Amino acid sequence: MHHTCHSPRRPSVLHIFKIYYPDLFGGTLTVIRDICASLKDAFASAVLVCSQSAEQREIVVDDVPVERVRSFGDVLSLPAAPTYPWRLWQKIADHDLLALHAPFPLADLVFAFGLGRRRPMVVHWHADIVTHAGLRWFIEPLMRRTLRQAKAIIVSDRVLVDKTPLLREFEDKCHVVPFGIDTDVYDWPKIEPHHVNDRGRLVLACGRLVPYKGFDVLIRAAVNRAFEVWIIGEGVERTRLEQLIGELGLGERVRLLGSVSDCERIKLMCLADVFVMPSVTNAETFGLVQLEAMAAGRRVVNTALDTAVPRVARHGMEALTVPPGDAEALGEAIDTLISDPGRRRRMGLSARTRAVSRYSTATFKDGMESVYRAALAASRDQPADDHQKETGWFDSIGIAAILAWSDMRHRYVRSLLGPFWMSLQMAIVVAVLGSVIGQMSNGDMLARLPMLALSMTAWTFLNSVVLDATTALQNSASLIRDRALPPVIFLLQCTFRQGLFALHNACVPLALWLLLTPHNLSGALAALPGLSLFVVCTFALSLVLGALATRYRDLKPIIESTLMLAFLASPVIWSADMVNHRSTVMRLNPLTHLFAVWREPLTGGHVGATSITYVLVMLALLLGASVLTLGHLRKAAFWI
């Protein structure tokens, strides 16, 4: 009798970040790679990133499956990958644990809307938002919601918690796991002092060529000095750095080596006399590459940042630490080590000893595995009633749809025509308005009726959704307080309910289109994207205004009056050729452009670039405001 022994299934971990090998080389990417490699016996890892490469979407890097979502470039250091949130949402259910490498606002946007709540998440905090600090007002609320959802937050050094206000809010979730490095690959026995390069002139630096790395400071430090500088790495700053080298006349002593293989990088580490990390901002939180230099027995010159950088290689022991951005001080520190070979050897030995004893791969592996397993265990041990209390977005949408359908059925019980009374009412309104407009213009009145009916249907939908939202939370006070249902359900209910009514109203423009216009489906298909934008903007507007009207009751009459004025100042009941296009009010009115993005394709025209830009900017602002509103809606029970 044969017994088959099945090994237990390894929990799967999805690593979430903006980019990965082979598109770029960097510290965060090395950390992800090392986590996947060190935990391969305990966890099955996968990576989801963005990529500008036109090559295959799914690849394997070091036996780890990597899916690359298409990106069209970078905007403010964030990949322009519009489908990434959708793909992330799809993959969440396929994995047991989510590992988000922060900062990555594109992923925060997904978690801010409550997606992924049913999967435990660990956040690896690599850095704070420094480069584009002006965007913190928008990004920080997203990150806060992500950290609130996370089971654990991993940092490389305690100083990151002490110096980062956002992390201090979640101090109880933070776990310090120092990065580790495989010191064996640096072949220490072969680079004992008698093998070390005795020229005493080679200075090495390594990293992405981006502003915060401070390589321009290192280049300036080489002016009027005798040492040579080799810089490993690629990035957006390469052209500027090459120009600076040329302007300073350093072409013979400063070299940009570009990207090199791991083997070549290790070789250069072992040959260098001094390793320099000239970073100038707190975006450099640890400096994994200086740990590699320490493992190779290199003495280090680093900068006095408020991060772990000067704590990994300590001043006077493994490194000389200088003020960030000070080229003169940096050059003097390098010259100090260049002129003292004995000190270089002593500091190199101290650096190697610290790398082996404190930053070993075994310590790193044990720390990561412990946090990952604890996050999984905490999720499994969560009481069943706690899971039931969590209402994700899908649950909210389903509940809102059921409530909206119930409203429809109860509103028209024992009614002969049911909701088609609305269709009849819309037909009467269109007929009356059409006759009035026909008297005001010289055009064919019948030809205008389908677009008039469709415009009135769209306006009625927008107006009703927003006005419903201003009282939705007060009308559902008992369900919010007693049943603890998320307030967003009742704002969604307004959109669904008015959407059902709009479908009945749509019978009028549909009938008129079939009777009075040529049947051209291409225009209808071209209008769908614009119509989708119209619906999304309507819901976002209702979400924001509904919350504000609940918090501040005197806003409701102001909203009603504003909607009336917006209707009168918008080309809803008349065509564009009846409107003076030079009118400032019309051009600045958001509804003019919101209607244009779907009406123009229906009439065979093209949507103007101004309207597209206007609507996209409005959509971005409304989505940002919606995210902020969702964060405050948890207080709705106190407002009502």
Word description of this protein:
α18 packs antiparallel against α20. 54% of the residues lie in helices and 11% in strands. The longest helix is centred in the last third of the chain and has 31 residues. The chain has three domains: 165 residues, Rossmann fold; 176 residues, Glycogen Phosphorylase B (Rossmann fold), CATH 3.40.50; 246 residues, no CATH class. An eight-stranded mixed sheet has the order 3-4-2-1-7-8-9-10, sandwiched between helices. Strands 13-12-11-14-15-16 form a six-stranded parallel sheet, sandwiched between helices. Strands 5-6 form a two-stranded antiparallel sheet. One of its GO terms (molecular function) is ABC-type transporter activity.
Main features:
single chain, 640 residues, alpha/beta, Rossmann fold, eight-stranded mixed β-sheet, six-stranded parallel β-sheet, 27 helices, 54% helix, disordered N terminus, ABC-type transporter activity
Q: Pick out the low-confidence regions.
A: 1-6, 191-198, 384-390
Helix count?
27
Report the portion of residues in β strands: 5-15%
> What is the mean predicted local confidence, pLDDT?
81
> What class, by secondary structure content?
alpha/beta
Identify the strand order in the major beta sheet.
3-4-2-1-7-8-9-10
Which helices and strands appear, and what pairs or packs with what?
Elements: E1 12-16, H1 27-38, E2 44-51, E3 58-61, E4 64-70, E5 74-75, E6 78-79, H2 84-92, E7 97-102, H3 105-112, E8 121-125, H4 136-149, E9 152-155, H5 158-163, H6 165-168, E10 174-176, E11 202-206, H7 215-221, E12 228-232, H8 238-248, E13 254-258, H9 262-271, E14 274-276, H10 288-295, E15 299-303, H11 309-312, E16 319-322, H12 327-338, H13 341-358, H14 361-381, H15 384-389, H16 393-411, H17 420-440, H18 445-475, H19 477-482, H20 488-505, H21 507-516, H22 521-551, H23 555-568, H24 584-588, H25 590-602, H26 609-632, H27 636-639
Helix pairs in contact: 2-3, 3-4, 4-26, 7-8, 7-12, 10-13, 16-20, 17-18, 18-20, 18-21, 18-22, 18-23, 20-22, 22-25, 22-26, 25-26
Transmembrane segments: 416-437, 449-467, 521-546, 558-576, 612-633
Membrane topology: Multi-pass membrane protein
Domain Glycosyltransferase subfamily 4-like N-terminal: 26-180
